[in-house]
Write a structure and sequence with these properties.
homohexamer; alpha+beta; Aminopeptidase; OB fold (Dihydrolipoamide Acetyltransferase, E2P)
Amino acid sequence: MERNTTQQLTPATVDFDKPGKQIGAFHVPFSAHDDAWGVVPVPVAVISNGKGPTVILEGGNHGDEYEGPITLGELIRDLDPASVSGRLIFIPAINQPAVMAAQRVSPIDGINMNRTFPGDPLGTTTRQIAAFVNDVLFPMGDVFIDLHSGGSSLDIIPSAVIEPGKSPEQHEANVAAATAFGAPIAVVIDNRGDPRTATASAALAGLTVIGTEMAGGGTVSIDALALCRRGVRNVLAHLGVVPRHFATPVEKPPALFELTSRAHVIVEDDGVFEPIHRLGTEVRAGELAGRIHFITQPGRKPVDLHYRADGIVYGRRQPGRVRPGNCCLVVATPYESKKP
Amino acid sequence: MERNTTQQLTPATVDFDKPGKQIGAFHVPFSAHDDAWGVVPVPVAVISNGKGPTVILEGGNHGDEYEGPITLGELIRDLDPASVSGRLIFIPAINQPAVMAAQRVSPIDGINMNRTFPGDPLGTTTRQIAAFVNDVLFPMGDVFIDLHSGGSSLDIIPSAVIEPGKSPEQHEANVAAATAFGAPIAVVIDNRGDPRTATASAALAGLTVIGTEMAGGGTVSIDALALCRRGVRNVLAHLGVVPRHFATPVEKPPALFELTSRAHVIVEDDGVFEPIHRLGTEVRAGELAGRIHFITQPGRKPVDLHYRADGIVYGRRQPGRVRPGNCCLVVATPYESKKP
Amino acid sequence: MERNTTQQLTPATVDFDKPGKQIGAFHVPFSAHDDAWGVVPVPVAVISNGKGPTVILEGGNHGDEYEGPITLGELIRDLDPASVSGRLIFIPAINQPAVMAAQRVSPIDGINMNRTFPGDPLGTTTRQIAAFVNDVLFPMGDVFIDLHSGGSSLDIIPSAVIEPGKSPEQHEANVAAATAFGAPIAVVIDNRGDPRTATASAALAGLTVIGTEMAGGGTVSIDALALCRRGVRNVLAHLGVVPRHFATPVEKPPALFELTSRAHVIVEDDGVFEPIHRLGTEVRAGELAGRIHFITQPGRKPVDLHYRADGIVYGRRQPGRVRPGNCCLVVATPYESKKP
Amino acid sequence: MERNTTQQLTPATVDFDKPGKQIGAFHVPFSAHDDAWGVVPVPVAVISNGKGPTVILEGGNHGDEYEGPITLGELIRDLDPASVSGRLIFIPAINQPAVMAAQRVSPIDGINMNRTFPGDPLGTTTRQIAAFVNDVLFPMGDVFIDLHSGGSSLDIIPSAVIEPGKSPEQHEANVAAATAFGAPIAVVIDNRGDPRTATASAALAGLTVIGTEMAGGGTVSIDALALCRRGVRNVLAHLGVVPRHFATPVEKPPALFELTSRAHVIVEDDGVFEPIHRLGTEVRAGELAGRIHFITQPGRKPVDLHYRADGIVYGRRQPGRVRPGNCCLVVATPYESKKP
Amino acid sequence: MERNTTQQLTPATVDFDKPGKQIGAFHVPFSAHDDAWGVVPVPVAVISNGKGPTVILEGGNHGDEYEGPITLGELIRDLDPASVSGRLIFIPAINQPAVMAAQRVSPIDGINMNRTFPGDPLGTTTRQIAAFVNDVLFPMGDVFIDLHSGGSSLDIIPSAVIEPGKSPEQHEANVAAATAFGAPIAVVIDNRGDPRTATASAALAGLTVIGTEMAGGGTVSIDALALCRRGVRNVLAHLGVVPRHFATPVEKPPALFELTSRAHVIVEDDGVFEPIHRLGTEVRAGELAGRIHFITQPGRKPVDLHYRADGIVYGRRQPGRVRPGNCCLVVATPYESKKP
Amino acid sequence: MERNTTQQLTPATVDFDKPGKQIGAFHVPFSAHDDAWGVVPVPVAVISNGKGPTVILEGGNHGDEYEGPITLGELIRDLDPASVSGRLIFIPAINQPAVMAAQRVSPIDGINMNRTFPGDPLGTTTRQIAAFVNDVLFPMGDVFIDLHSGGSSLDIIPSAVIEPGKSPEQHEANVAAATAFGAPIAVVIDNRGDPRTATASAALAGLTVIGTEMAGGGTVSIDALALCRRGVRNVLAHLGVVPRHFATPVEKPPALFELTSRAHVIVEDDGVFEPIHRLGTEVRAGELAGRIHFITQPGRKPVDLHYRADGIVYGRRQPGRVRPGNCCLVVATPYESKKP
């Protein structure tokens, strides 16, 4: 019934079963003070042609991550349907209100889209959008590509992200897709098993899943954008949805890493964070990772931070100002392949 | 009378005429809903010894610029008064409320400290702080060092900034101090003659003035912090306030640039900004500078931005999201020395 | 158990089973920062006498719609219990916090009362109020009258609203009640089957249901208020709860319309909306409906809007300023009676 | 010096002395947290040709009044410079930040543009914009046309507004221009002599001045927009800046009214306002003007409001919700011409 | 499964099964705009030694109640594990974000921690914290001590609070623990049976439960803090977890009271509340309890408030300003013991 | 001219020169988004009869201080004009917007009324109100009584406050009036000479001035209200404006104190403040005054606070939560009379 409810309440201006290229939106009803009978228009595009898998490409899950949405917009405008074998469904700005506001979370209900899957067709806006994707789009799909960057608070090495598969076959497919992306590294991230992310939800629905982290700091990275443009085409070619020659040759497979339960360096003080190492530096557990300065109390000695795992510096907090509980650094540890 | 009013209303916990090292604050009265008889405690430190000039060192004029305050805090804690010849007055977090909030402008009155000099002893908090610096500290000083970074919205090449002098002698002294700093480049910035900056106010008061721009993006830059640590010591040694050996040898004088009236690339659209060139790239007026993407309207073609001056890319907007009037890029043009 | 929970947590200062007139409130517990053991007092009145149906009259479901609450307040003050046959339960300002704030949605939890039925006795305030109405009041009732206006964002032709019945009998009763109201038109509105409105919830509970839309724009309309005053009395007389002579003779039955899935004209641009036709004008799908002006970009050509259905202009957006997704116009289409 | 300061700090992208049509902006520097070196781009257009007076046309002084800006935008796009004799300077959205936000006052500094003239070139944004208009544009002008509507809170009879002249000649010229506009009525409004409005400032600068009030309620009125389109062309033809045939023949001169010190009906209670009469109704001092309902206290009797002057109902509060001090009604009294 | 989810998502830095003293936190994942991979660090301490019951001590359920957290912090720092027989688990600032903000409710999700038990491991932050306490800690515990004060809005007689037991044995144990606390009075408070409080949830889980109300007004009371320090030690000695001599001899058992359904005096007007009696005064139903003044309408007569129950004035509203629905006074009625 | 401007822009509904009792308001024009032509109605009352001085009585200068406004409202309602010799002008809620909001400062412009005198007739609302009082009322007055309490953030010993006179005669008159008030203590408070308070402004205008501090904590104190009711009548009788028998006999003159520059104990940490002594306790400089607890860091040792002056504890911070710069305690020192 849920899926019926979602479809009934959320009309789309595109026909997902029609061949060719369509650019439109699905309209999530939103009855607000300044617009009683309005909608949140979530942009969606479909390019469909011939036989082949259905690939769902998502950007804008967080509203301050730009490399993915730019890449998807270019594909939507530039791809000739004739060159497609299968179907591409693009949702380049899935959390449309967050994207308009340049915020990680929705300004409407304060919800983080990536902590609310599978959503609720009768819930608030972000949950309704998630329900549409989960209930209406995922059942149409074979592959789900979810393009993230680090957002306003993190700068992360541009990399493919591997969602742990629910079966050995799914896991292998996920790793293969991440490998095809062509980033220098690929990282297994399981979010402690949190089932509320888009990729976890897609994996539960049986799709092959690939994610990314493409720099961050709330800016558009010249390098990460170039990698993202190549990588998405590489994956689509790997899947056979676009011709082989759309891909950029990749010199070598990515180094594989994972985020363990000791990856994150969490601060306990209220101050300003000074990092010591650049992204990619090899570090060891216990090594000095940074300092917290107390700049309104110049007589107070800074406090030291230390890494908690061996590996490379994978991510770094962007804002200098920190408060207790903030994540300052993330260390990625070489991945020992273990089947799920 | 103004100066008297300022001194009377704003007691300091340090004695500016006492030798040795003192760390304290000046207390700007602030009668707020949750603290009727409270103060804004602006940290201040004095290190004084023997004969020599009085140098005023300011950080935290904007609350989201960190390299300067960290550097000043280290000097305050590490410098032995015995090694000083003259007097150092540190205000490492001058806009204390903004620093606590990690905001460019004060959360109390919404005022940008660097657009409110010479302040007003009977005005709102930011104006009262500026009045204290202008009315009480500037008359004690010979040199004013104002350490800025790009802040949350800009990433800028770490560089010394030259305030145009009000006389040839002052201008020369400003250039010499900026040269001593030891950054690869130094840039003359006149803010269209806006008299409301701290440096303009100090120059009007007759002090030798030097500023900086130390990266930005609201983060702490490893490289810029290293340069700032060296540069401030270099300037102090140049002024003779600390021994020569405190300075780091500088290989060659900085290349000199200026910001002309065509330096800024202003956006007219509401979208996401993609830059084309890294900081430091040489560019020419009319060249493609970036694109504005409309990521919630994937069918809409991006709009191109173009440079308006020849020179190097000196600064770049950090947040990807832009609205009409935002400054996306700043080009620094080689400086043709002209005496004021 | 839910109903027990609601009753237990939400005491009322009136006795619903007592004859005569009582004016009081039900107290929804609300433990807030500035009132740890306080309540939200939702006004309620009961006028009960002899035999006859129980009619529940609701106003203030949205806090910026006034014709209904004014009409109910007058009935509460003016009606002599001796003239009543049955029981009238008035909730003239059901979303009391929204009414106090003059907002469509509750300032406490941001929830739209008309998208949260059947509520939750352990949820936030708006959901607790809905649960009280659904769990405690609906089981007492035979008929539910829900008086809406267009609110701050819409101006709507004053009209009766027909909730689709869950059975042919219920549907017929709903149409008969709407006909008795005596507005020039009556409109079937199904909200795409959304089960979360007060009227949908009442219909599910088996009550006869009638709604209204009484102008709007956040103001009190002289004409709509006059119609509302007459219409509510007409319906009560039709139901036999007040004497026949309380009714105003109605010249002819209302023209019947419905809102189809193509009723709404949704804007895709960010600008200012200029309408072309007055409310009530007959229009056709494809006809020019309005223009979007870009008044901060005077060189940019306006964008045209077009109707998507044949019928009459039933509603119009009040605020000139629009953003993508806003509903600018609503077209009501002549209703072809179909039993549910 | 002020004027020099304004010009120096606020570059314009148009050349006011160049013939032909130019559309651009003047850039008010705005150094905010999310845009350190940005500007507020206030749109400006110039159409200049041959000999003739310079007319300054302003819209968007309040950001929620639309008939004026729409009319000016159409003139900017449609007017052929060849048909102009003199110079037209358009500022169709003078309070650009307020227009973007659809607010009466600026979201940047909370200032009402029409209570801040002559502005301050070193003040906050709204004051800087006012200073540019006052210091740079007014000295170029012969005539100032300021197009207002009632805004979000008032609905006003579409009418010309006569600024009291500072000399008999100026007053006569103002009346003549208002007469030429062609509205059914024209009203002398002196704002109790408040010198801070744009029109008062222009009058002080010696310009002929004409204003309007064009309906309101925060919406775009079909009728008022039609009148505004005709009226502005009529005035320009009257001034000889566009050919006579651009004007629409006006059947009879406007009835003249004024707002006396007893024009406004101010509410003392906290409730919901019900008006009794439509705009234009003739009323007398002491007559019942409206009622204040207490819809969350249905047992409480409404309070009556009474008019305080004889005349016609000229304006009416749009939002139903009122609090003490709100203006509910405005009565315009027939004007007995008195030279200033 | 819920408990597994909670544990998996919420790592603790202490080992609850380890003897000795540990001070750490449990980390509730919180992915916010300014900290994508951060946590809310909820402080927790464990002191464990030998055999004996496990006592869970909670403070900071509301963020503006201080006597409990101060007392718990002192115990954490001062208690020698060697003097403990059993295990003490301290959560001195359970709603850490509310404590940091000095607010009753969480600034993150607006939720009152004491109206959200048993929480939800996949809900918003406050619900995740409650789930951790309910799912992970309560199963470890034998006794639960929940230290409240009146908070910003209430001043309450320092007293022990008795949670009604779910069985005669549990009730007796709760009364015995409250008696041991040693306050002059103890009050049975059942919150109308609301199951969402921490103590109700603990009682449902089978723990012995004791609560407190320790003055309030958002301040730290010298007397209440002294009582709290003694009382908590008294209870721990009573339970045998610390030696008998840690207790302060109590002269006589507390007088027992309860809050009946007529305990609260709720205001219906918008004004300023003047109380008549001090806390502890004996009063009778119908007696004058206070006045509501209308200080912006000095001509309006104050409105009288009356008590609704016999007993003593147990609590009083702190803020003078009141709005309809606020609780002004709370009367505690002598308790007639009745087994549940 | 200023005074003329004020009078012209700010009409009053009372005639200050008319005998008898009038209750009305002065209307400060306020053109806001939701009320374009509205006013801020500041309540004012006049009771005038026969010969005698004009006494201006002010309450509500801060919106969260209630004893004064309640006392003034009672006098306005209860005083028979026949018993008055002279004129009483009451402004019981001078900062009307702050009083409505129960905030120290105005919610309109964020300004503290008591830091903005003499105001500005063309400034924002709070400054316009101050200008009316300073420019229109003070010139009518002989005596100014300004009734303060401690407000939300401070609890202060109920006491008369002596404004230092500008001449020996004025000072003597101020002391005599404060003595007549009949509080146990009277305190000379000079605010470091800040000229922006209402009392400083009145003193500059030549009026005899008396102030009060009447408890605080944002509540209504039973004791302070009783004292305030007596004290104001005592002063009026002392001035001969009401008959001698209106006064309550005072047993002994107040002990005189002053606030020296070392009166305030300012906190440097971010935590929770525990006081050690009750109000009125005699203390000495250097003595332990309180502790700052860090309740989210239970392992961290509290920080001690110390008094800085000898005297009695005159005021104490109400909110437990403190941040650097907050005033925790105020010590009043025995006053050594010195003529100004």
